[in-house]
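Re: beginner question about structure tokens

> Can someone show what the tokenized structure looks like for a real chain? I only ever see the sequence side.

Sure, here's an example I had lying around. Input first:
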Amino acid sequence: MRFVLLLLSLVLAATQATSHAYAQWDIEESHTTASLRGIHNVGGGVAWASGTDGTVLRTEDGGYLWQTCTIPPGAEKLDFRGVQAFDENTAIVMSSGPGDQSRLYKTTDGCQTWKLLFTNPDKEGFWDALQFIDRQEGFVLGDPVSIKGVQALNAFAFFQTSNGGETWNALHQERRSQHIYPAQTDDAVFAASNSSLLVSFTYPTFVTGGPHPKLIAARPMFWRVLPNISAQDLIKGISRSLPLAVGKAAGGFSIGETHGKFVIVGGDYTKPDSINGTAVFEGADLDFFQAITPPHGYRSSVNYDSTQKLWVTVGPNGTDISTDDGKNWRPLTPASTDPVGADKNWNALSLPFVVGPHGRIGRLRTIDQKSTAINKP
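And the corresponding structure tokens:
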């Protein structure tokens, strides 16, 4: 989202909570001062990160050493908000910006060389998220654009590839597409962490911001049986209002799923210490409720750690965890041996990694939930 480009160098003191977990991030050396918003943990020690000024990083040893990649041609001033990696050699990065400043580049040789795959064809468009189901099928989500041949209709931009990114179809411009999602005035998607879009159900699901925050999901009959779905919903997908903060800088920023339920975080990024409307959890049949104990500020990214069976969410003023699928959150605070502010100033997650401004990269340590102590990996 365009407003996100104005963000985000705010680092304010975290509010105190009654219950803390003394867990934290091991800070890693990135060898860059770029603002990082893209992060993708492939597994097996391989992860890729991306950010401003055409910056792409990768590690093959779990973050002990981060390699600075060759800048893709013509991308020296681009802001790579998203990265989707497949192995130690293959990755696609997405830049976010107005019109043709939104682009996709791919490497297959460990980021020594890059190929420009696709440039945004919508002059008024702005890309927000890139997600792949597998090596072949992927999606790009963008802010609303006008629909050709339909007067006064705007829809969220949606592109799909079925051949690893070599070609892309503009689904939002196809009259019979199941992926035309009409947008209301001031609707938008945030490009804060490349996690406003989720494709784990094969069909995409995303969250929006603005005056009407909502979850939008495609063709739910293919991934979940819901008793209260209308015939129109079955054809066009569904939309659900989210009880999150509202405004031009507010709404849903990140979505995750586990145990068949969604957890969504956000808030107002101009009010990083406000706890109002910062997280919701799913009850039954896509009914959403505000967190009982919310994160202690605006949050830009959320991720589930299946090994530790907990949720982690991050933002400018701190980190929070939940062990009950988003109903209650408690802050992580630095241990005595951690650097001051190790819990703060983060943008995006792909656990165990977290990235932030000024080249910040961290790796989550194992949490001993019985004693709230931390064990080194």
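Each token stands for a local structural state, so reading them left to right follows the chain. Residues 19-375 form a domain with the Methylamine Dehydrogenase; Chain H fold (CATH 2.130.10.10).
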